[in-house]
Write the structure tokens for this entry.
Amino acid sequence: MEYRQQVIQEYRSMLEPLLQYLPWLEKNAGKTASRSYQGQGLSRKSMSFPVYDANLMNFVREASGSGLMDRNYCYVYTRNRIRTHDDERRVIAAAELRDWDILRGILSKYVLEGQTKATLWGEAVQENIFALVLGRMRRIVGYWDKTRW
């Protein structure tokens, strides 16, 4: 029991800084969180690039520096046969304390892989993945935390 409480406190300390972004993520679910840059001097032959909302950028910056990141997230996807957004939502909805690493893996995929694939951060907001993962993590910690934050 004491060990579980230590684990929950550790999870809580990793999660708390990210929860400030949860209302924004929930409000923007289903919406695009980026737009294409249309600046001066951009010709038709130039490649456009996304410009992200400041809240999303702050969330990604904070999440990437947190202990929730799992660089081996691809194994979470193969082990649990997660292939689509519906699979992700199903796994997130069913997650319990023992599935914490699965939630970390899903979050990590979008945060870390989004650093090289420009569309993933916006996709995670639009498909509601970030909000679902953070919400589920909050419910798990809230259920098991004896100090009830």
About this structure: The mean pLDDT is 88. DSSP finds eight helices and two strands in the chain. The two ends are 18 Å apart (CA to CA). Strands lie at 34-36, 50-52.
